[in-house]
């Protein structure tokens, strides 16, 4: 499991509105996690839990931290991985901590500031959905501070390997990366107009145009696309009504 994305978490200003939005746009079901002392909602497809949503922590808005999605990457040892991340130039924003009955985690960032989380679950991991199953997260994309530096960092931390590389002309190289021999995402040096590096997560839907219509009707905004990508899939990048950036991917328009 080391180096595999295993969870996704939305921190937002209005959890009920976010719950309604993603249920309609992506097709997730939602239920309260029943965690004592915290309101945490679980998003699922069938019996498979995919993501969670919670209210942004106190002080985040004052620090100009916008609503955002955070990806959790499985590691063999959270404390050891956090220490290695620091040694490789990353930052630990929240020191390793336990979630009773769930696992251990840390909130971190790569050397250029793109945030993600380290995670090791308690007990056996649940069965995994197919990567491209409807409602799952089909792609993980890093707008990096610098592609070469970022790839070396993540490769050392997670063992990711280079897959296909695509020359995007003036935009530079888009480097696919693989976990266990399967391409799970891509990264590229961010365009100059993008203020800071970030991770973007692509949620699988069955048909893109219908999902775009649902997103617009529920108060979302389209920021890039729709466009066809190599392999024949279609993507669009959006913001939800609270301003969190996400993307959709589908095999057809």
In summary, what is this structure?
The strands form two sheets. Strands 2-3-4-1-5-8-7-6 form an eight-stranded mixed sheet. It is 17% helix and 44% strand.
Descriptive labels:
alpha+beta; 2,3-Dihydroxybiphenyl 1,2-Dioxygenase, domain 1; 2 domains; eight-stranded mixed beta sheet; 16 strands; Anthracycline_SecMetBiosynth; lyase activity; Glyas_Bleomycin-R_OHBP_Dase; lyase; Glyas_Fos-R_dOase_dom
Kindly report the average pLDDT value: 94
Q: How many distinct beta strands?
A: 16
Shape verdict: globular
What is the CATH topology of the largest domain? 2,3-Dihydroxybiphenyl 1,2-Dioxygenase, domain 1
C-alpha termini separation: 33 Å
Radius of gyration: 17 Å
Q: Work out the strand percent.
A: 35-45%
Q: Number of DSSP helices?
A: 4
- By CATH, the architecture of the largest domain is named Roll
| Largest sheet: number of strands, sense, barrel closure | 8 strands, mixed
Q: Strand-and-helix sequence, N→C?
A: EHEEEEHEEEEHEEEEHEEE
Write down the domain tally.
Answer: 2
Within the largest sheet, what's the order of strands? 2-3-4-1-5-8-7-6
Report helical residue fraction.
Answer: 10-25%
Unreliable runs, pLDDT <50, ≥5 residues?
Answer: none
CATH class of the largest domain: Alpha Beta
The helix/strand class is alpha+beta
GO molecular function: lyase activity
Keywords: Lyase
Organism: Sinorhizobium kostiense
Domain VOC: 4-121, 136-251
Could you explain how this protein is built, in words?
The chain has 253 residues and is an alpha+beta fold. It is 17% helix and 44% strand. It has two domains: 5-121, 2,3-Dihydroxybiphenyl 1,2-Dioxygenase, domain 1, CATH 3.10.180; 137-250, 2,3-Dihydroxybiphenyl 1,2-Dioxygenase, domain 1 (Roll). It is built from four helices and 16 strands. The radius of gyration is 17 Å and the shape is globular. The mean pLDDT is 94.
